[in-house]
Amino acid sequence: MTREDVTDLIYYTKVQKGIKWADVAGKVKLSKEWVTAACMGQMTLNKQQATIVGKIFSLPPEAIALLQAVPYKGSLPTAVPTDPLIYRWYEMINVYGTTIKELIHEEFGDGIMSAIDFSMDIKREPDPKGDRVNVVLSGKFLPYKTY
């Protein structure tokens, strides 16, 4: 069994049982964004978290062990994403990436926004012209050091 097999098993069970990520997150007691990333193979669960996820998705012991292993992060199936929703994020970065970089550097100086000391919040924003997706990304600023 591989970590990818565990992700497939989790997703299969989620669909079959109609499980919502927010419900899983409530039982793990962490954000739906982080728990979803962990279940999709991008984060490491501790033993207690992995056990809870294992019970929710009826996972075998070897799958629960793999949930506790450090995953290979950023593992999309292709260099340029083909899934339309993920591709739109790729497109946004292609169009606005230099603007985001310029504005962060102007405000903070030379450095990066951490994806490790990071949080994300995704919400539905009602709008009479069609509901909107509201995404807030918050990462610690890490300046480059001189030496």
From TrEMBL:
Keywords: Lyase
Catalytic activity of the protein: cyanate + hydrogencarbonate + 3 H(+) = NH4(+) + 2 CO2
EC number(s) per entry: 4.2.1.104
Source taxon at top rank: Bacteria
Family annotation (NCBIfam families): cynS, PRK02866.1
PANTHER family referenced in this protein's UniProt entry, alphabetically: CYANATE HYDRATASE (PTHR34186)
Keyword hit for Transport: no
Domain Cyanate lyase C-terminal: 75-147
Similarity comment text for this entry: Belongs to the cyanase family.
Lyase listed as a keyword: yes
Catalytic residue list: 88, 91, 114
Protein name in UniProt: Cyanate hydratase
Biological role stated in the UniProt entry: Catalyzes the reaction of cyanate with bicarbonate to produce ammonia and carbon dioxide.
Gene Ontology molecular-function annotations: cyanate hydratase activity; DNA binding
